[in-house]
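Re: your question from the hallway

Yes, I did run it. Sequences:
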Amino acid sequence: MFPISRRAALAGLGASLAAPAIVNAQAPAKTSVGVLRLSSSGPVFVAAERGYWRDLGLDVELKYFTAAQQVPVAVTSNDAEFGVTGLTAAFYNLAGRGALKIVASQARDEKGFPLTAYMATNAAYERGLRSPKDYAGKRIGITTTGSTFHYMLGLIARKYNFDINGVTLVPLQTLPNMQAAFKGGQIDGILAPVTLARALEADGSGKILAWAGDETPWQLGALFTSPRAIDTRRNVVERFIAGYVRGAADFHAAFNLRDAAGKEIYGTNYAETLSLVARAVQQPTELVAQGLPYIDPQGRLDVGDIYAQVAFWQQANLVTREVNARDVIDLSFVRGHMNVPRG
Amino acid sequence: MSDRPVEFRGLGFAPQPVRYAALAAFAVLLAIWEYAGRAGLVSPIFLPPPSTIAKALADLWAQGLLLRHLSESAYRLVFGWGLGTFVGLAAGFAMGIWSVSRAIGVPFVSALFPIPKISLLPLLILWLGIGEASKVATIALGVFFPTVIATYAAIDAVPRNLIRMGQSFGLPTSDVLRKIVLPGALPGILAGFRISSSIALILLVSAEMIGAQYGIGAFVLQAGNLMLTDQLLAGVVILSILGLAIGTGLGQLEKRLLRWR
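Structure:
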């Protein structure tokens, strides 16, 4: 707390009585952010809970959604001013038509951070599906065409140099459907979020082959807003990102430190931050601790990967040709973005 | 009182076929929609103009995908609707004729009809896999219940005195059923077909949530997942055309089967 002298307090009181208009002008600017109840939205929860936006004169409302596609749609339709989620083909289709711009990073798949598992059913494992490179020619369950899972399969295909078109992608729309098809052995494998993957392996339904973070690191999610907000409320956008990055730095300091052997180190305010995130995502702390993502402490993006994502979706004919990766990112809010393509 | 004949006033509201009214209204609607899009009154993301939707349809055709989507969906629709209707008719007849089967059937139908079939998808996948069986079963389940209800309600509506008269004249039961009950119930059953065929189309999208790579429902789902709103509406247009075609077909069937009216 700042020490406030009696005179200053009185002066402030006098000023507020004499000129209510000025007090009004200092009322916090209202804004909103669309989030999912996932730990990858951690920086938002931390910034909101610890009052980082309030300190910057912002009154931020958190609007909760249940599926990744809904968040960019909500920002497009003006129901939320900002959004944070995983990057999907749907996102680029909206962003490329001038509805959205990426301004900072969210989670990134990194070595040593198990977030998404490549899994094999027991039967497929027996038949020799032992590593994601054996996915070539198999039937793999994903949620939807154009999802982050779909992209991760594309990354695996590129890494091990096989044709993604040779993999039969089975879009099952929901995780329960995927689970049912996996347990019933109607597909050879699925991509599964860490908690589901651990549960499936624990009850003996299948095997975890590898983690996407170890195999193919990539820029999983981002913070975005509308070009309109950038043009007309740049000051609000700057303050929002500043608060968000403070939240990201806290998140990183608490959860993302590793020792020389790659083992997790409990960082600054680990327990308190964990219980904060657990409350926000409405999950038990042990479960949340299993799947904490890597989040850049300064909100920096792997820009080259965003370009690669757009190229991948366009090659698969799932994102329209007019979309230009350069137009969907605004690099001016965060300094030190990584892997920025030249030109 | 004059002895002038009273002119006929009881015309009622007899519907006359008005040929081009629907087409004209439709054309005007399309024109306004297109204009709103072109003039920039509506963002193309929120509501793509008809020309964009037509282009999406043309692309689909050019890629040779339209027929593939249609044929896979047609298979599921024909078998799903056929199975649901066949079993539904049998159950409906039993419930319409025998008191015991009605006493058993009605509470079952009331309890099971309102279950959203989409919530059963994980179970259907476990039971039937992700091949055609679970997709056909999803549609058949949805078609079964309205068919049962339409059938036994239609049998109830057959004039009792006709049935009694047949029985009094010593007509064998099989003839009573075939010559009195079946024709009498047919209008109600055919009306039920109109409802159940629309339900089959609605459930096509749910059925194709089960790992379908082709099919109109799968196409609509994918377009929605990708936020390609022009393709989404193109798929919806195809579903509407299918609905119209099925409706027209059923109209023809009614004309033929109900000529005795």
